[in-house]
Input
Amino acid sequence: MLFAFMSLTKVNRFLATEDDTLALGRSLAPLLEPGMVIHLRGDLGAGKTTLARGLLRGLGYEGRVKSPTFTLLEPYKFSRLNLYHFDFYRFLDPEELDDAGFREYFNPQSACLIEWPEKAPDLPPADLDITLDPAPEGRAVTLTAQTEIGRRCLDSLKT
Ligand SMILES: Nc1ncnc2c1ncn2[C@@H]1O[C@H](COP(=O)(O)OP(=O)(O)OP(=O)(O)O)[C@@H](O)[C@H]1O
Ligand SMILES: [Mg+2]
Output
C-alpha cells in the first residue's frame, strides 16, 4: 500500500531530433505552474538548454535564449510567470547561492529551470526532474514527477 503512495509518475520519450526536444519544451510551457521547480539533468550537450529554449518559445519568448553557463542565471520576466533559467555547471562556492540572492528567485510567483542542479547543494527540491540521455542519434528523455504539482504536469502531458 505504501508502495502505491510512493509511486512516481514517469514519462519516457525518444527525441529523434533537436526539433523534438524543442517541441517537448513547448508542450511543457502551458503546464508550468507558478512556484514550480524543474531540474534538467544530463551530460554536457545533452540538450538541456535546447529544452529550455523550447519552453521559452512556448511561453511566447521570441528573443535569443542564451545559455546561462557564465552568468549562472538568465531571468525572463515577460509572461504570466517569472521564469528563471539557471545553469550551475560553474558553480563553485555553496555560499554563492545566498550571496547572490539566488534563493529569492525560488518563490510562489516564479518558475525555475535548473541545469546542473547536482552542482549546487541545498537547492529547493524539484517538482519535475527531466533527464536527457544522448543516444547515437537523438536523445532519450525521462520526466519524473517528484511532487503533486509535477504529477499534474505529467498527467496533462500524457493526455
Ligand atoms: N533530440 C536531439 N537529437 C539530436 N540532437 C539534439 C537533440 N536535442 C538537442 N540536440 C543538440 O544537442 C546539442 C545540445 O546542446 P544544449 O546546449 O542544449 O546542451 P546542454 O545539455 O544544455 O549542455 P550544457 O551542459 O553544456 O549546458 C545542440 O547542438 C542541439 O542541437
Ligand atoms: Mg546548457
User: Anything to note?
Assistant: The mean pLDDT is 92. The radius of gyration is 15 Å.
